[in-house]
UniProtKB/TrEMBL annotation:
<keyword id="KW-0472">Membrane</keyword>
<feature type="domain" description="ABC transmembrane type-2">
    <location>
        <begin position="31"/>
        <end position="270"/>
    </location>
</feature>
<feature type="transmembrane region" description="Helical">
    <location>
        <begin position="248"/>
        <end position="267"/>
    </location>
</feature>
<keyword id="KW-0046">Antibiotic resistance</keyword>
<comment type="similarity">
    <text>Belongs to the ABC-2 integral membrane protein family.</text>
</comment>
<feature type="transmembrane region" description="Helical">
    <location>
        <begin position="182"/>
        <end position="202"/>
    </location>
</feature>
<dbReference type="InterPro" id="IPR047817">
    <property type="entry name" value="ABC2_TM_bact-type"/>
</dbReference>
<keyword id="KW-0812">Transmembrane</keyword>
<keyword id="KW-0813">Transport</keyword>
<dbReference type="Pfam" id="PF12698">
    <property type="entry name" value="ABC2_membrane_3"/>
</dbReference>
<feature type="transmembrane region" description="Helical">
    <location>
        <begin position="29"/>
        <end position="45"/>
    </location>
</feature>
<keyword id="KW-1003">Cell membrane</keyword>
<dbReference type="InterPro" id="IPR013525">
    <property type="entry name" value="ABC2_TM"/>
</dbReference>
<feature type="transmembrane region" description="Helical">
    <location>
        <begin position="151"/>
        <end position="175"/>
    </location>
</feature>
<dbReference type="InterPro" id="IPR000412">
    <property type="entry name" value="ABC_2_transport"/>
</dbReference>
<feature type="transmembrane region" description="Helical">
    <location>
        <begin position="113"/>
        <end position="139"/>
    </location>
</feature>
<keyword id="KW-1133">Transmembrane helix</keyword>
Amino acid sequence: MNPRVHAIRLALRRGWIEFRQSFTSPQDLWNYFGFSLVFLFVLMFQRPFLDGADMPGIAGTSLSYLAVTVPGVVAMLLVTGSVLSTAQFLTAEREDGTLLRAKAMPRGMTGYMGGKVLCVSAMTLLSMLVFLVPSILVFDGLPSGDTSGLLVLLWSVPLGILATMPLGAILGSLLPSPRAAMGVTVLPLMVVCLISGVFFPIDVMPEAVQVLAQVFPVYWLAMSMRSAFLPDALASVEIGESWRHLEAAGVLGAWAVAGLLIAPFVLRRMARRESGAVVEQRRHKAMQRVA
């Protein structure tokens, strides 16, 4: 059998096994679904106060503030799942020696990373559904009923994962521990989401912030999600008063290409530095933290 094909098969099998096993760990389940449940609870709690409120700039529409916020939160869940979960996986499994064992096998790193991509992608999609399905049932106006929205999801979700997951792999390769991955990653992600129009139209932000937000994939993902779930009339509050699908695909594609070029180099460099002595030193430090 071709070694590359064999590595791909191992990656698919490993990813599926890890995906199933994650349902046996309460900690893994909370890591995946915690954000989804928290945001769902927050929106449900705010429903009596905001369900009849119009979004700024679209007064007179039949959509509430909460309904318009849902697609942006879905985009944020995709980004945080892809980046944060990947970074935490890599740091944790580098610390406990899993990565070193994968490195020792023929094409082990290919199988390891392929399996991780499959597992994280599946859990990220599931966490989005945990938030999205109840939101569609509860908040009026979702989805728009336009079949073109499904087409937008079919290209924007995979492209969004490709654009953001390599960033998580890079951070996981550079950061020393799972605690560092959480501490360093969460706050910048929340800031980027805040300025990217996830919770309110970006046109209320200063012009310089609007320009900065368009550099990051979160803005383009959030806008693509809104175009998939909301009526075309909502494009009037977007920059350029349109959904700009071509620009969104271009920016997300650029992030994906850059990440797929840089991440393998960083991962190989990190893997070369792994050794039994280094893993044992990390275990000793981890035990000291627990003690």
